[in-house]
Amino acid sequence: MPFPPDGPSLTDAGSSAAALPLRGISLLLVEDSRFTCDALRLICQRSGARLKRAETLAAARALLDSAHPDLAIIDLGLPDGPGTDLIASLSATGMPVLAISGDPEGRTAAGEAGAVAFLDKPLPSVAGFVRLIRQLVAGGGADVPGQDHDAPAADPLALRDDLERAAALVAGDPAQHGYATGFVRSLARAVGDPALERAALHAGADGGRLVLSHLIAERLDRLQAAC
After folding, report:
1. The domain 26-137 belongs to what CATH superfamily?
2. What is the pTM (predicted TM-score) of this model?
3. Which of 3, 39, 185, 191 could connect to 154 by a Cys-Cys bridge, CB 3.0–4.6 Å?
4. pLDDT tens for residues 56-111?
5. Which residue ranges make up each domain of the chain?
């Protein structure tokens, strides 16, 4: 199901540019994690940016038939292919693209595809994200700003959805093993769970997939108990 479009949260019609520093900027986010999408949605609402979201390359391309964002934010690991494919095609049109990934080693591939900057998970602060987007939309390349990690907390229901999806992926088609473990690793980095990230990295070893499944189940149980 496609994401609904998101607009800025305008609690005060007279909000100043300082209060909404990204007002008037339109962003496209291509990201398969509900948790990360929700966190970025909250940042955009706080800063005034308009956001459209897609979970897959196909959905993103369908949106781009009618939408003309100022900047695209593209995850490198997507269900229907590598994000670098879309990065390359959008960069060729002159659109600035910010790559995002839970795998720091993706920085080189993203740059080679044409991304003007790379955002590593977990997400930076609201202020750091705003600085980066303003730099990129203004036409200057940028490195990741200092990450002081005060991004707004995403909805725990979004995290639950991601964990349920991770459980299904890990238990599913072995041909999708690479995507499944990449999804879990990215989620683990986004929520600051090094044990889960390590398990995803070693899921190809003997018994590794079972260990990863157990860890995901534990986190789901813990989250459901807290809710």
Report:
1. Response regulator (3.40.50.2300)
2. 0.86
3. 39
4. 999 999 999 998 999 999 999 999 999 999 999 999 999 999 999 988 889 999 99
5. 26-137, 156-226
